[in-house]
Amino acid sequence: MSSLANQLVRAEKEEIARAIRTLLARPFLTADDEPAAFAVIRKRREPLTRWFDYFCGWRLVVEPREGYARLVKVGSRPTATRPARRRAGGPPFDRRRYTLLCLCAAELLAAPVTTIGMLAGRVARAAAVEPGVPPFDPVSADERAAFVDALELLERHGAITPTDGTTDAYLGDEEAKVLYRVDTTRVIRLLAAPVPPSRLPGAAGDPAAPTVAPAVALTVEARYGGDEPTETQRALWARHSVIRRLLDEPVVYRDELTPAQAAYAASLTGRRMIRRAAEEAGFVLEERAEGLLLVDTEAVATDTRFPDDGGPAKVAALLLLDLLVTAGPLPAGRLDEEAAELLRRFPQWARAYQSDGGAPRLAADALEVLAMFGLARRTGDRVAALPAGARYRVDRGPADTEDA
């Protein structure tokens, strides 16, 4: 093979690897937001589609004319570590906002154009007839704020586009005029669950009671054979579920895997497949006795980083982690004391926590960060660092000395 041919093959592999990592970080990627990345995904959509299907069992939909790519990610287990957020980096959605998001998405399918007032009215009527759904009252400022958060998330994904007015105007005035163009295809694409909610037992008037929790029932995938899988289906599930977790989670500990997953990850076939997936996606695979993790040296595949100075909680998390690694496990109350000491030493820092009860809140938020990154775990009243936390231990080394 000529040198030019080698260069072309290498360039194609690098483009595919980077596109895989880009889609992992942004499963709903639009040409408007990232034209260069979308151009590569459009060009390499066939090998990308095969890669995600083979290694993860995930479906990739690329719509060149519509200008978006949707990686339909299904988790191996329901998790709340990646919530929808009110704005970029803002607080996570609460139950009310998720409810309004679902109602808005359902009502937006009715017409390609709507106004914020018309949509609010339709959502209010839908909430009034849905069992178990609290009424929606657009007169309430809190309700309008939750409604606007749901609409802004839909805007960020291109499901709705304001053509006259701004969504924020509705916060202060329920009579605000905002006209939307609705992309019903994108609204439908937002749903990644293999089982649509309308097909769950007990939904849409079905008298059958669900036998499992709704969050679990939504993620049931028929390709794995249900309660009576074949040997081939069990092997397929093991491969997909392990690699999904490696791609989705910062670190995968062996003691958190099921027996079937642990056996696959330890087998010759499983190890070869994991290494191949990591290499083709451009990750560095770290294999330890305690677990596995994928490192993206370019930080393309992640939506959040640690450590960084993205907020007081992450800074406090790094400081508390060093304490847990060197002196842990510790009572949760000790972390509260350490957080209080940080706030006392730096009175101009972390203003949102410089109030009564601020230290326990800071410690709780820091612990949430550590748990999300697989660095610490709370069991009862005790908090312990996990093995991956050791990489953040401060190397204090011998003290500097001077010759007499």
How would you characterize this protein structure?
By secondary structure, the protein is mostly helical. The protein folds into 4 domains: 3-72; 79-218, no CATH class; 229-295; 312-392, Arc Repressor Mutant, subunit A. 46% of the residues lie in helices and 11% in strands. The chain has 15 helices and 12 strands. The strands form 4 sheets. Strands 1-3-2 form a 3-stranded antiparallel sheet. A hairpin with a 4-residue loop joins strand 2 (59-63) and strand 3. The radius of gyration is 24 Å and the shape is globular.
Poorly predicted runs are 204-210, 400-404
Number of domains: 4
Shape: globular
What portion of residues belong to β-strands? Answer: 5-15%
Structural class designation = mainly alpha
Question: N- to C-terminal separation?
Answer: 66 Å
Would you count the extended β strands for me? 12
**Main β-sheet description:** 3 strands, antiparallel
Q: Reading side by side through the largest sheet, how are the strands ordered?
A: 1-3-2
Short description:
By secondary structure, the protein is mainly alpha-helical.
Which descriptors would you attach to this protein?
11% strand; disordered C terminus; three-stranded antiparallel sheet; 404 residues; 12 strands
Task: Record the SSE blueprint.
Blueprint: H1 3-25, E1 28-30, H2 35-43, H3 45-56, E2 59-63, E3 68-72, H4 95-108, E4 113-115, H5 116-129, H6 141-156, E5 160-164, H7 169-172, E6 179-182, H8 184-189, H9 214-217, H10 231-248, E7 252-253, H11 259-266, H12 268-281, E8 284-287, E9 291-295, H13 312-327, E10 330-331, H14 332-345, H15 358-372, E11 376-379, E12 382-385
Antiparallel strand pairs: 1-3, 2-3, 4-6, 5-6, 7-9, 8-9, 10-12, 11-12
Helix pairs in contact: 4-5, 4-6, 10-11, 11-12, 13-15, 14-15
